[in-house]
Amino acid sequence: MAEHESDRGANPTSAVNEKVARPAPPVVSVERITHQDVVAICALYKKVWEHEATGLPSELLKAWQPTPLEFTSWMEGVTYFAARREGKLIGVIGCEIQRGACRLVQLAVDPDVRRQGTATALVAASIEWARHANAPVVWGDALARFTAAAALLKHLGFAECGVLHKHEWNEDVRLFERLI
Ligand SMILES: CC(C)(COP(=O)(O)OP(=O)(O)OC[C@H]1O[C@@H](n2cnc3c(N)ncnc32)[C@H](O)[C@@H]1OP(=O)(O)O)[C@@H](O)C(=O)NCCC(=O)NCCS
């Protein structure tokens, strides 16, 4: 993923000073999505994957930027949560039960608001949902090149448990799991 450390700003000292000077960001709320959110979610995926596009296979970029009609079909069998701040949709995640385990899918956070706990809140909501569904484990995958996703999942207590080589459009995919 292209942003990584740059999410914090190029100069660590100035980033720290900025953090001290800036007021705390408004609270993020996380809720199940409704059909009324579909257009905003598709716009968010488009923004995220255009931001991450450098070096990514074009098939992947196309597949991960659904139209509203395509996203509506993604919603079948998958529970999606959206994160909002001051009414604006800034993140999304899907969770689905597969053979009794909870899989996380299509996590994405607006590039303008990263490193502010949005993905953390979305994963927490997913884990809560998985507990209610009696799933003993939550797992997810990420292209090996998406080091921010790997850092996030490890930060949230997931263990890296494998790699699938050349699994998606010739890209290696890392697997992560957390027993709950
Ligand atoms: C990965 C992604 C969802 C993280 O969203 P986020 O809201 O910025 O994550 P959070 O603010 O909750 O991060 C929590 C912690 O994860 C780790 N982390 C997150 N992004 C990181 C990065 N770019 N570099 C290093 N560590 C990172 C840090 O430990 C961070 O805590 P800190 O900011 O206090 O150091 C976001 O970067 C994104 O949408 N990336 C593109 C899409 C993608 O890769 N999706 C996942 C596919 S599985």
Q: What does it look like?
A:
With 180 residues, the protein is an alpha+beta fold. It has a single domain, classed as Gcn5-related N-acetyltransferase (GNAT) (Aminopeptidase), CATH 3.40.630.30. The protein is built from six helices and seven strands. The protein has helices at 12-21, 38-51, 58-63, 68-74, 118-132, 147-155; strands spanning 28-32, 79-85, 88-98, 101-109, 137-143, 159-168, 171-179. Strand 4, helix 5 and strand 5 (137-143) form a beta-alpha-beta unit. The model is unreliable at 1-14 (pLDDT under 50). Coenzyme A binds at residues 1, 3-4, 7, 48, 52, 107-109, 114-120, 140, 142, 146, 148-149, 151-152, 155. Coenzyme A binds next to strand 4, helix 5, strand 5 and helix 6.
Binned strand content: 25-35%
Number of helices: 6
Quantity of strands, as a count = 7
Q: In this structure, how is the largest beta sheet organized?
A: 7 strands, mixed
Order of helices and strands: HEHHHEEEHEHEE
Task: Give every kind of bound small molecule, once each.
Answer: coenzyme A
The oligomerization state is: single chain
How many domains is the backbone divided into?
Answer: 1
List the strand order in the largest sheet: 1-2-3-4-5-7-6
User: Low-confidence parts lasting 5 or more residues at pLDDT below 50?
Assistant: 1-14
Radius of gyration, rounded? 16 Å
| Mean pLDDT across residues | 91
Q: Could you estimate the helical fraction of the residues in percent?
A: 25-40%
Q: Look at the structure and name the CATH superfamily.
A: Gcn5-related N-acetyltransferase (GNAT)
* CATH architectural category: 3-Layer(aba) Sandwich
CATH class, anyone?
Alpha Beta
CATH topology: Aminopeptidase
